[in-house]
Amino acid sequence: MRCYHDNDYHIQIMTFQKEIDIFDYFIMSKGLKQSGQRRDILKTFLKTEKHLTADELFRLVKKKNPSIGVATVYRTIKLICDCGLGRELRLDNDSVRYEHFFNHDHHDHLYCTDCGELTEVVDREIEKLQQKLAKKAGFKMQGHRLIIHGICRKCS
Amino acid sequence: MRCYHDNDYHIQIMTFQKEIDIFDYFIMSKGLKQSGQRRDILKTFLKTEKHLTADELFRLVKKKNPSIGVATVYRTIKLICDCGLGRELRLDNDSVRYEHFFNHDHHDHLYCTDCGELTEVVDREIEKLQQKLAKKAGFKMQGHRLIIHGICRKCS
DNA sequence: TTATCTGCAAAGCCTTTGCACTTAG
DNA sequence: CTAAGTGCAAAGGCTTTGCAGATAA
Question: What are chain A's domains?
C-alpha cells in the first residue's frame, strides 16, 4: 500500500511503524501482551480511510485472518483508542464508529444529514475560542467534539 | 410547580402551554392522535432539569401514571424531538440522553470526564465561526453539537 | 367508525463476558 | 511456567416491534 505525503510528494510504503511502536509500548507498559491478532486489527484499522464500526472492522480483518473473533476486535479497538491512535465517534441514529489519526491532524466533522457523508474540517480560531470558553468556566480542557449538521454541496 | 424567570424574578406557574401547543399541532399535522400518556410524558420531560435516558423518563412518568409502558416512552420521546422540543445527546460510554429546550436557549456542553457533570455554555463568536466554516465548505448548516471534555472546577 | 395508540412480551441489535484452550514473555 | 489473549457462544443492555384490545377524532 502506498500513499502521498502532503508535504513532500514522496511516495512511500506505509509501514505504520511509528503507530505500531506506540501500540507496542502501550501494551507493554500496562503489563499486557502483544499478539498477531492485535497487530492485524491495528494495521487494518489504520489502513482504512473510513469511519468504521467495530463490526465492519471485524469483517475487514477477517479477510486477512479468517479465524479472528468479533470479541477480539471489540477488545482491541478499545486498546487502540486508549493508547491515543484513534477515537470513538457517536453519530446520531447510528452505532459507534471509530476513526484513526494516521495522517490526520485533529479535526472536526461536517455531517450531511442527507447522504450521511462525513467531511473533516479544522478551524484554528474556533479551537482557540473553545480553549478560552473552557478556561472561563474553570474547566481544564482535555478535548472536544464538534459536529456540524447540514446539507452538503452535492445534496443541495 | 413553580419557577423563577431569570429576567424578571417573577414567580409563575409552569403550564408549558406553548410547548403543549407545539406538540399538539405537530401531532395533528402529521395525522396522528393525541393521548393522555403522550401529554404526561411531555410534561414530565419538560419539568425535569436533567439529561434523562428514556428509561429514567419512563420511571418518572410511572410515578404519575403507573400503568404506562416503556415502549410508549420510547415512541413519544422521538416525537418530542421530531417536533423540536428536545434533542438527543450521545455522550461517550453512556446511552442516549435527552434534553428539552424549555427555558433553555441553544447551548453547547462542557462535560466533566471525572464526575460526569454536564454544564451548558454558549459562545456567540464560536457560533458565528461555525456558520462561516460551514458556508466555506459549501454546507447548508442545520445545526451543530459541541461538547468540550475536561475536568470541572470541583474535580480539579 | 376506523385509524392510531397502548401495554405487554418477544425479538433484535450491538456489545460484553465466562470459559476452556492457546500463547507470549 | 504463568498470566494474559483468543474464539466461541451465551448473556446483557437498550431499543424496537408485533399484537390484540382500547381510544381519539
Answer: 1-104 (1.10.10.10), 107-156 (3.30.1490.190)
